[in-house]
Write a structure and sequence with these properties.
Blueprint lengths: L8 E10 L2 E11 L3 E6 L6 H8 L7 E6 L2 E2 L6 H6 L2 E4 L11 H8 L8 H16 L16 H13 L8 E5 L7 H16 L3 E5 L3 H7 L2 E6 L2 E7 L5 H8 L22 E5 L10 E4 L3 E5 L6 H12 L4 E4 L3 H5 L6 H6 L7 E2 L2 E2 L1 H15 L15 H14 L4 E5 L7 H16 L3 E5 L3 H4 L4 E6 L2 E7 L5 H9 L4
Parallel strand pairs: 3-8, 3-9, 6-7, 7-8, 13-18, 13-19, 14-17, 17-18
Antiparallel strand pairs: 1-2, 1-4, 4-5, 9-10, 11-12, 15-16, 19-20
Helix pairs in contact: 3-4, 4-5, 12-13
Length: 482
């Protein structure tokens, strides 16, 4: 399929700066045919910036770029990268939302021409979807904007693996499973191994360290714009990876240590049933309770959270969106403005906003949640995806709302930040706030006091802390009898 000798990519001394911030500091990296390289590090470590250089999206300030033995330094752009077989699945999805899956496929395969191009494009993307995600259920004539986030991610991944004339030499996967449930994530990882076994090269960026350890052949650890460790995957375990990234492993090792007593006499803060199945089990959350929403993606969890948010209103409820680009950030606003907007009432003074107080509030949350920026007045889109998500958490946690709704909010968030946010959630719950937490990560469900499992857009099971196991969640997700 693909050449199997030499280096397919050589990056030497790559430097990138954004103003006073040095994002990459003389980075050297080689990629070999027939391997999967895991790339890990905290948010803002430089991972996505380095891959944007490799994908031709970002021109480095200095450094050498060699692809398949050809020196591309000084004239390497995304068009050249595509022609050389470099494909990238970006963390912030790049599909055109007003076009269908087939039409989006035509964008990257301009040899699809003539009267039958639409049919051929549809057949191509369908074949790859069937190969990577069996049973996906995606119709390729559907407008992308009408698909759920996980389905959009599947289409973008399939498009990267699709081939007509130019071989797919290198596939860059930037947080590819962040919106996928466990089943589809496993399908993708299995396909990555097949692709690599045929001579392809893959770069896997993921904050799910178990995923990287399972799939990668080598692992590179980035910190502060540099590669600080690069070894064969079997030289690492989870603890050593976290240590190399510059964080201390969480002291909590056993799921049982996460359990806490919840006062069952506390009043019910919110109750709801899925609108599509009003006869299903009823979701209830008491004051101070953390309630998880589980099940395969696209089974109505997000819709229920949105229904509750609309019903309760922003005075009572705050929403942390997982699809931050469409439902979370205000892209034309600054970082500080994106945080403060959830708490404007607290800064109202005789009909005016106390801007100095609002600025202090934003700065306080920058310190509390560790947003990596030199200036909170910078545009929100100047942040990495994970740091944008931190800003959304700051907006919700800083608001006066007593009910916090979280729609798979840890997409693209590093392990250190996750632990810090988990601690904040538990502290806020202890103070009486209620949380509804939809997550596709099994480990996050162990932080919940109770879990409701969704299937076919209905709630089919309620699991208490003692009952909450991966087997029970999967059983309820797939079987007729919960």
């Amino acid at each position: 399929m693909i050449e199997t000798g030499g280096h397919v990519v050589e990056l030497g001394g790559v430097e990138v700066s954004f103003g006073a911030v040095r994002a990459l500091n003389r980075v050297d990296l080689t990629l070999k045919p027939g391997e999967c390289l895991g790339l890990v590090g905290h948010n803002g470590a430089g991972k996505s910036t380095l891959m944007n250089v490799l994908a031709g999206v970002l021109e480095p300030d200095a450094g050498r770029i060699v692809i398949a033995g050809q020196d591309q330094t000084g004239h390497y752009r995304s068009q050249q990268a595509g022609a050389l077989g470099i494909r990238c699945v970006f963390q912030e999805l790049s599909l055109c939302p007003n076009l269908t899956a087939a039409e989006n496929t035509r964008i990257v395969h301009n040899t699809l021409r003539g009267f039958s191009w639409r049919r051929n494009a549809s057949r191509l993307i369908t074949e790859v979807l069937d190969e990577v995600f069996p049973g996906h259920g995606i119709l390729t004539d559907t407008v992308i904007g009408d698909l759920g986030l996980s389905q959009r991610q599947m289409v973008e991944i399939a498009r990267a693996f699709s081939v007509i004339h130019v071989p797919a030499r290198v596939i860059i996967l930037d947080e590819p499973t962040s919106s996928l449930d466990q089943t589809t994530a496993r399908q993708l990882m299995d396909h990555v191994r097949r692709y690599v076994a045929q001579g392809g090269t893959c770069v896997l960026i993921s904050h799910l360290l178990g995923e990287v350890l399972d799939v990668a052949d080598r692992i590179a650890v980035m910190r502060d714009g540099q590669i600080v460790a690069l070894e064969k995957a079997d030289a690492f375990d989870r603890a050593s990876l976290v240590a190399a990234m510059g964080s201390v492993e969480d002291a909590v090792q056993a799921h049982g240590e996460l359990r806490r007593a919840v006062d069952t006499d506390r009043p019910v803060a919110v109750s709801a049933r899925p609108s599509a199945h009003p006869e299903s089990l009823e979701l209830k959350a008491r004051a101070g309770e953390i309630v998880g929403l589980a099940g395969l993606s696209g089974q109505g969890q997000t819709e229920l959270l949105i229904d509750i948010f609309r019903r309760e209103g922003p005075a009572q409820a705050a929403l942390v969106a997982g699809d931050r680009q469409n439902d979370g950030v205000f892209p034309l606003w600054s970082i500080g403005e994106n945080i403060v907007v959830g708490s404007l009432q607290r800064f109202a003074r005789a009909g005016f906003i106390d801007f100095p107080a609002a600025k202090r509030f934003a700065e306080d949350w920058r310190e509390r949640i560790g947003i990596r920026t030199a200036d909170m007045g910078n545009p929100i889109l100047s942040l990495s995806g994970g740091n944008q998500q931190k800003a959304l958490f700051a907006r919700a946690l800083g608001s006066p709302a007593q009910l916090l709704l979280m729609d798979d909010p840890m997409r693209g968030v590093d392990v250190g930040t996750k632990r810090e946010v988990y601690q904040m959630i538990r502290a806020e719950a202890a103070a009486g706030r209620s949380f509804l937490w939809y997550t596709t990560e099994m480990d996050e469900l162990y932080h919940c006091d109770r879990v409701y499992v969704f299937r076919d857009r209905a709630i089919v099971a309620e699991l208490g802390q003692e009952e909450m196991t991966e087997d029970r969640v999967l059983h309820a997700s797939f079987k007729e009898d919960a």
